[in-house]
TrEMBL record:
Keywords on record: ATP-binding, Nucleotide-binding, Transport
Full protein name: ATP-binding cassette domain-containing protein
Occurrences of domain ABC transporter (ranges): 2-239
Organism: Paenibacillus hexagrammi
Domain of life, per lineage: Bacteria
Keyword Transferase appears in the UniProt entry: no
SUPFAM superfamilies in the cross-refs: P-loop containing nucleoside triphosphate hydrolases
Membrane topology of the entry: Peripheral membrane protein
Entry similarity comment: Belongs to the ABC transporter superfamily.
Compartment(s) of residence: Cell membrane
UniProt key word Signal: no
Classification via Pfam families: ABC_tran (PF00005)
Length: 255
């Protein structure tokens, strides 16, 4: 569903990505894991067609970027990021913010059809915040805001859902509630691509991990193959021990 081949991304004489290959197949859900500034968000921008590689090939849902209308491909991709959140209007009621996802608008300037409103309310039920439907977006907690983004991105029934550090800034309770909603996506026919630097966010939904350091791929493949103390040391420069509990990896720092 997403193929990145021989990707190089050079800006201002800096090699930000170097010879990256990742092949994401249907039925898989991926985590891109790596330190701050390793190139994770840049990879997401390439998948969305907001950036183009200096060299290499990006193919998404059978469309080769550069030879297709990227806007058409984007209609099948949900993207959750802080920069998108910042474009939303904090005074709009939550249900309306969710409803805008149906058309990939940022705001409505005309009446919203009843069926779209109904669908938005259903999405809010799905992420367990139906009681917040009429509240202005700006009054919500950080965790609730992330759930609104998730509900909004599901409105257009995407084939791929890309999330850039959705759990950043959440406390343990809020993080686990959000991760539970994301894990529930396993019931749906949707590929999830998730960026984080926190290993414990690799919930059972995720099947594969790409580990990246300074723009280079250290390893990519099934999570049990990639998440070894050796690979994590290469990516994070910290010696760790790793333990699997309920199909989630937990780490102990050794030094
Ligand atoms: N258009 C650009 N021009 C110059 N430098 C860029 C550009 N885009 C990204 N970079 C640089 O590339 C590096 C990788 O950035 P990126 O945002 O992809 O990292 P990241 O792994 O997502 O980091 P974080 O976890 O901190 O969000 C950073 O050092 C960033 O400053």
């Amino acid at each position: 569903m997403i193929q990145l081949s021989n990707i190089h991304f050079i800006r201002e004489e800096r090699h930000i990505l170097e010879d990256v290959h990742i092949d994401m197949q249907k039925g898989e859900n991926w985590v891109l894991l790596g330190r701050n500034g390793s190139g994770k968000t840049t990879l997401l921008e390439l998948m969305n067609g907001y950036e183009f590689p200096s060299k290499g090939k990006v193919e998404v849902l059978g469309n080769r970027y550069g030879q297709c209308d990227v806007r058409e491909v984007r209609k099948q991709i949900g993207y959750i990021s802080q920069s998108l959140f910042e474009k939303l209007n904090l005074s709009d009621p939550v249900w309306e913010v969710v409803a805008t996802g149906e058309y990939a608008f940022l705001r409505f300037y005309q009446e919203i059809p009843e069926e779209v409103k109904g669908k938005a309310l259903d999405m809010l039920k799905r992420v367990r915040i139906p009681h917040l439907a009429d509240q202005p977006l700006g009054t919500l907690s950080q965790g609730e805001r992330k759930k609104v983004m998730l509900a909004r991105s599901l409105m257009m029934n995407p084939s791929i859902l890309i999330m850039d550090e959705p759990a950043a800034g959440l406390d343990l309770f809020e993080r686990e509630r959000l991760l539970q909603d994301i894990n529930d996506l396993s019931k749906q026919d949707i590929m999830v691509v998730y960026v984080t630097h926190h290993i414990e966010e690799i919930i059972p939904l995720f099947t594969h991990v790409a580990l990246i350091e300074a723009g280079k791929l250290i390893a990519s493949g099934t999570k049990k193959d990639v998440l070894t103390p050796e690979n994590l040391y290469r990516a994070f420069g910290v010696k760790v021990e790793l333990e699997w509990f309920r199909d989630r990896p937990w780490i102990k720092v050794l030094e």
